[in-house]
Specification:
Distance between the termini: 55 Å
Strand content: 15-25%
Order of helices and strands: HEHEHEHEEEEEHEHEHHHEHEEHE
Shape: elongated
């Protein structure tokens, strides 16, 4: 929320702490703001502090100062708008930060109403910031890359809407997830449903807990041009030919007799798999050639 800082210090944060929830207070976007607000915010009884800046060069001095001023854990919120969001991870660890939040919204962005020819975003010059499900694939990439660089906790956020999203974030390397857009759209009560759905789905996909799923992504199963091939289950195929229709390389020959791919034409883009309505198509690690399976 964009309430002014004094309202957060005098009303919002104390109320949240008094209610008994764990509060992480977010401060930004400059070193001067860190110097001004870290001590008053810490005094409200929050459990941790998170630092936010859209300027990458600000974040190191902000981290040093916040760690000096507060006895609480300090998290740094990474921004996809930095030239290289992962370039300063080692230096931030050296500053004594307790973990990372990954990540912030993407922007500036623009969206236009074709009837009025005006921007539908009310920010400066009609520009704003993109968040929610649209940025989820970007965030998952950075969380997974970050998890291979640090052993510190990672709070993943950016597009978490369903239980499947929660588990994807865990698999990528998140130790916890954050929510914003979905709770504004569906209300706070949706959190109960999401927690229940996640607990059920974790068991369904073979995990006893969220922490067991953290970092459990199977990178060996990723498509690779040298070792990847298609799988095809003819018992699931309805002969809809959608895989043929979407292939821009005309690499596929699909019918009741089976599924075949011309290795010289196929680019392994996976579009055919994404449109298969029955999941008859898939990728499997295999030796050498992309081939047919009947």
């Amino acid at each position: 929320s964009d309430y002014n800082p004094r309202q957060w210090v005098e009303q919002e944060l104390p109320a949240a702490v008094e209610a008994g929830v764990t509060v992480i207070a977010s401060i930004g976007h400059t070193l001067d703001e860190i110097k001004k607000w870290t001590v008053p915010i810490t005094a409200t009884g929050v459990s941790a502090v998170e630092l936010v800046s859209y300027e990458a060069m600000q974040i190191i001095p902000m981290a040093r100062e916040a760690v000096r001023l507060t006895g609480k854990p300090v998290f740094v919120k990474l921004s996809p708008n930095w030239v290289d969001p992962l370039a300063m991870i080692r230096e931030l660890e050296g500053c004594g930060v307790a973990g990372f939040t990954a990540m912030d919204s993407v922007g500036p962005v623009l969206s236009i109403d074709i009837k009025t020819r005006k921007s539908v975003v009310a920010g400066t010059d009609g520009r704003g910031w993109l968040t929610g499900s649209a940025i989820k694939p970007i965030i998952l990439h950075y969380i997974n890359a970050l998890s291979s660089m640090t052993s510190l906790p990672i709070i993943g956020l950016g597009g978490v809407t369903t239980a499947q999203d929660v588990i994807e974030f865990a698999l990528a390397g998140s130790h916890a997830v954050g929510l914003c857009t979905v709770l504004m759209l569906r209300g706070p009560d949706y959190l109960k449903k999401l927690i229940a759905d996640t607990a059920h789905l974790l068991v369904e996909v073979g995990f006893a807990s969220f922490s067991e799923a953290t970092g459990a992504m199977d990178t060996a199963a990723l498509p690779d041009e040298g070792t990847q091939q298609f799988s095809f289950d003819h018992t699931l195929c309805t002969d809809c030919r959608k895989c043929n229709q979407v292939c821009p390389y005309r690499a596929q020959h699909t019918g009741k007799k089976g599924f075949q791919v011309d290795r010289k034409l196929c680019r392994l883009c996976g579009l055919c798999i994404s449109v298969c309505p029955t999941e008859a198509l898939g990728f499997v690690p295999g030796p050498g050639q992309v081939g047919a399976s009947t």
